[in-house]
Amino acid sequence: MPGWESYLKEHRAEYVDQLMDFVRIPSISALSEHFVDVRRAAQWAADRLKAAGVNNARVIPTGEHALAYGEWLGAPGKPTFLLYGHLDVQPVDPLDLWTTPPFEPVIRDGRMYGRGASDDKSGVLLTIIAVEALLKTAGTLPVNVKFVLEGQEEVGSLGLADFVVANHDLLKCDAIINADGLQWSENQPALLVGLRGVCAADIGVLNASADLHSGLYGGAIANPLHALAELMASFHSPDGRIAVEGFYDDVVELSPEDKKRIDSIPFDESEYKARLGVDTLFGEPGYSTLERVGVRPTCEINGMWGGFQGEGMKTVLPKEAHAKITCRLVPNQEPAKILDLLEAHVKKHKPQGVKVAFHPGANQARPYLVPTDQPINKVTRDVLVEVYGKEPFFAWEGGSVPICDVFLRELGAYSISFGFILPDEQFHAPDEFFRLSSFERGQVAFCKLLERL
Ligand SMILES: [Zn+2]
């Protein structure tokens, strides 16, 4: 038995306690009253890196937040891998839907419940534990490692992106191992090959200078809510295709090989519908559900508001109405170009009698692909096969991790996803939990990965 395996066993209970301590820090990066807690979580991680034997461990401010950095560069001539994870968490509301308080972690049925237990404090700790287990048993690592454990992933990683741009030398590496990642299920691994990009915009429809009495003025001027409904309906054709001119122009069609990979993933439509509580699936014609959520672009209205929403009736003719939209993008769509197309669409379809305003959002990410022939993909696959005893699915994930594209452009290094979060773990929602079995499996898998790199 290699030394690290017994080391992990000896420290199993201690590591669970450490994850609990980490989860107790309410590091919500979106809320200013918790910025100090994000800083505390970064300090916790830096201290933990130091204890693991990692050098130069420290907290580095990034805009209004901070990250924990550390390095072990004792393998000259060997490649360098950057271990990435995030120590900030999502807000916890609605609080009354939590069975136990989000920052008082508890273990029930082999699962640790608490905000961040799954996304992504477990991932952060897994990277540290693996490096510690190898360093404390072999006294060395087979490769060089750098840690970037950031504190603002849940708010778009903007400060981290600036930090990467300004610190090429510090962060120089051969590849990034992203511990903020998912497996397919408890007994099915997944190898991430693609992420969708994202862009966002706010749309306003404006008319009178104040809300008006609908009895005195109704019928004389256009109602912004009617106009907004008309405008938003123009974004899609009734069959589900996006009707924005030029939207699909740069989309790269799936290769027959990739299509085969997606088709080979079992998909149970009735189970899927039951899980979502829907009667019918609906989406762009000509594509399967897994294609629609992984490799096809979308345009979703995320919110629409205006006028009176209180109890009872109010005969008001509102002065304005608003909507928020986001698009998920696929290769080779550029967020800035898509925003231009959306703005042109809004101007062209402006309903009569109102003014429209279009505000592009700051959060953008390009779509991201890891070429499947990258050597690091092969190593990841081999480790997953060893740990799960089966071939991983090739997964195109519909979500976005903006920093992957930043790492590629700035450092010229690909990111692979190597995380042990499972899709049912309620991350971003009440009763988030992490399986202790995944925590143990992840420790072993990370050690094996470091050994094989
Ligand atoms: Zn995450």
Question: Gist?
Answer:
The protein has 453 residues and is of the alpha+beta class. The chain has 15 helices and 18 strands.
Helix-strand blueprint:
Elements: H1 3-10, H2 12-23, H3 35-52, E1 55-62, E2 65-72, E3 80-86, E4 106-108, E5 111-113, H4 121-138, E6 144-150, H5 158-166, H6 168-171, E7 175-178, E8 190-195, E9 197-206, E10 212-213, H7 214-217, H8 224-233, H9 256-263, H10 269-276, H11 289-294, E11 298-306, E12 316-317, E13 320-329, H12 335-348, E14 355-360, E15 368-369, H13 375-388, E16 393-397, H14 402-411, E17 414-417, E18 433-435, H15 436-452
Parallel strand pairs: 3-6, 3-7, 7-17, 8-16
Antiparallel strand pairs: 1-2, 2-6, 4-5, 5-18, 8-15, 9-13, 9-14, 10-12, 11-13
Helix pairs in contact: 1-4, 2-4, 3-4, 4-15, 5-14, 13-15
Bound molecules: zinc ion.
Zinc ion is lined by residues 86, 119-120, 153, 180.
Structural features, described:
- The protein is built from 15 helices and 18 strands.
- With 453 residues, the chain is of the alpha+beta class.
- The strands form five sheets. A six-stranded mixed beta sheet has the order 1-2-6-3-7-17, with helices on both faces. Strands 11-13-9-14 form a four-stranded antiparallel beta sheet. A three-stranded antiparallel beta sheet has the order 4-5-18.
- The chain is globular.
- It folds into two domains: 3-195 and 367-452, Aminopeptidase (3-Layer(aba) Sandwich), CATH 3.40.630; 197-251 and 297-360, Alpha-Beta Plaits (2-Layer Sandwich), CATH 3.30.70.360.
- Helix content is 35%, strand content 22%.
- Residues 86, 119-120, 153, 180 line the site of zinc ion (ZN).
